[in-house]
Structure formats: structure tokens, C-alpha cells
Amino acid sequence: MKGLVIKNTGSWYVVHTEEGDINCKVKGNFRIKGIRTTNPVAVGDRVDITVNPDGNAFITAIEPRDNYIIRKAINLSKESHIIAANLDEAFLVVTLAHPVTSTTFIDRFLATAEAYRVKTTLLINKIDLLLEEEDKQYLDAVTYLYRSIGYDVMHISGLTGEGIDRLRERIAGKISLFSGNSGVGKSTIINDLLPGLELRTAAISDIHDTGMHTTTFSEMFPVPGGGWIIDTPGIKGFGTIDFERGEIAHFFPDIFEISHDCRYNNCTHTHEPGCAVLKALDDHRIAQSRYNSYLSILDDLNQDKYRKPY
Ligand SMILES: Nc1nc2c(ncn2[C@@H]2O[C@H](COP(=O)(O)OP(=O)(O)O)[C@@H](O)[C@H]2O)c(=O)[nH]1
Ligand SMILES: [Mg+2]
Ligand SMILES: [Zn+2]
Predict the structure, then answer these.
(1) Is 125 close to ligand 1, i.e. is its CB under 6 Å away?
(2) How far is CA 246 from CA 254, 266, 269, 279, in A?
(3) 8 A C-beta contact, residue 67 and residue 82
(4) Given CA atoms 81, 87, 89, 95 in this order, what sign does their dihedral have?
(5) Ligand 1 contact via 183 beta carbon (within 6 Å)
(6) Minimum-distance ligand 1 atom for the alpha carbon of 203
(7) How far is the CA of 233 from the centre of ligand 2 (A)?
(8) Whole-model pTM?
(9) pLDDT tens, position by position, for the chain (310 residues)?
(10) How far away, in angstroms, is 270 Cα from ligand 3 center?
């Protein structure tokens, strides 16, 4: 029987089939070549399952994935966790206030999504809180920056419902991943989109004070009329995969475009003479925040190098 993996609780997978949702275990070895993952099967996987006469059900095969997104484990075990597979689109929920999402976080997410070829839209939530002229100008600047790079940017409020109808149209019939820091309003937005679901939402103070949101299991919810939403609770950092030093710029479209004019084709855009990126930074044709995010990934690689045991 064919099905769709809609939940992963660690040892069990819930598979959605025409005969209902079935709890399954995994049989067989589905490791991705060259990557050690904590979960061989991921939410969003299209699978074959077999139900034994004793009632135990097993996932026996996974269809090839169109794409997938991986997060490195927080520890140094070099293991990765597949967050979700077969995505049509990712929505990164960010807030400019309460809490502030850092541009580094945004850019690292976008770069990782570029690497996996997952189309990403920025959802700027809690715009009901941006009332001062200064806040509005900052909203405009952030919106302009990411639109000019080529990303879709939507302004929404999970609280007032502003922009939610447009978002509902966008996700119709698609598999959409929602991600973002804790407290930005993911659950609130998903509840707006899927009435009746009633995911737990939390006051920001709760999140900080009680250290909740410790589960990292993704879950898929059906959209009325077709499509699925994938919620990724508790994912703080996102990415980063094992970028190659010379490859990082490929995933920053604004930097990549200009890097064609660098004198050396192995330019890291940090110190090299004739670097078009450094020149563009000087001329404000590349945003300092984007360049800083680029450097932060480069820096990770340097640190990793020192950490490796050879
Ligand atoms: N002012 C305002 N608060 C919001 C909005 N969306 C969510 N919140 C609040 O932000 C807090 C965190 O929301 P939650 O959905 O739990 O965030 P999550 O951790 O990303 O799932 C809750 O107190 C929500 O009521 C919004 O658009 N405007
Ligand atoms: Mg939540
Ligand atoms: Zn350069």
C-alpha cells in the first residue's frame, strides 16, 4: 500500500493512506549515501507499507525524493536530521520585533534552502506591532532588500488576520513547510490557516522561562481542499549543511551575481585584490547584513576545520 509520512515521533512513523493513518516502523536500510541521519525516513516521504497479519505495519520502500531539507544535529556527532522531504515551498516566518529575528538567521536559512533548491518566501509576521514610523521604515527596508534579491516577501499578522487570505491562496494544493524561531507565531498562523487544528501557542515569556519546545519532530497537517502544511516546532538554528568554502557564495544570489567580476575565480571575497564583491559592498550594492551572514558561514567552516580530529 502507498502512503505519505505525516509524522515522525522517533520510533514510529504515522503514514497517511487511503485506508486511514497507520502507525509504522521501518524495515530495511534507507540511509542516504554519505550522510548520517538520525531519521532514515522523513515527514513528506512517499512510501510503500506492508501490514503483517499480526497488525504490525512497516515502511518497506521510499520513493525517490524531489528534495529534502536537513539540519545538522546540535551536538558534534556529525549526524543530520532530515526535517522534511518533497516540499513545494518553504515559508520562513520572521518578526522584526517581539522577538527580533536576526538577519543572520534569515540568510542562513535562505542559503540552505537555495542549496536544496527549495523555493522560500519570507513571511514577516506581527506587523500589527510595527506602528512607529521608524518600525515601518525598517519593515520597508527589509522588504525591499529581500525582494531585490528575488525573494517573495509577505506581510502578515496572525493576530489580526491581515494577509492570511492571500497566504491561504498561496498554499492551496501544495506541500508547504513553515519554519522560524520560537515565538514568531508559526503555530498561530497555522491555526489561522487550518481552523479546528488548534496547535498550542505560547507566550514568548513561557518559551524562554520554561525551556519548552524541546521536541524537534516535524508534523504535516492537511489543508482543507488539498495540500499539506509542515510545522517544524523547536527548530532554532537551521542549516547549515556542509558547504564547500568556494560554494557558499552560490547560495547568496546577490553576492553570486557580482562575484562573476572578481579577478580570481576562487575568490573568497574576504581580502583578495580585484574582488568585485568587496567593491560592491563599498558602493552599497550588496547589503552589509548579507555579507556578514556570508562571513558567518565561512567562519563556521574555519571552526570546523580546527575541530576535525586530523
Ligand atoms: N502581536 C502579535 N502577536 C502574535 C502574532 N502572531 C503570534 N503572536 C503571539 O506570539 C506568541 C508566540 O506565538 P506562537 O504561535 O506560539 O509562536 P511559534 O513558537 O512560532 O509557534 C503568542 O503569544 C502569540 O499570541 C501577531 O501577528 N501579532
Ligand atoms: Mg509553535
Ligand atoms: Zn571576490
Answers:
(1) yes
(2) 15, 6, 10, 19
(3) no
(4) negative
(5) yes
(6) 23
(7) 5
(8) 0.89
(9) 999 999 988 778 999 999 999 999 988 777 666 666 767 899 999 999 999 999 999 999 999 999 988 876 655 556 777 889 999 999 999 999 999 999 999 999 999 899 989 999 999 999 999 999 999 999 999 999 999 999 999 999 999 999 999 999 999 999 999 999 889 999 999 999 998 887 777 654 444 434 444 456 788 999 999 999 998 876 655 555 667 888 899 999 999 999 999 999 999 999 999 999 999 999 999 999 999 999 999 988 777 655 544 4
(10) 7
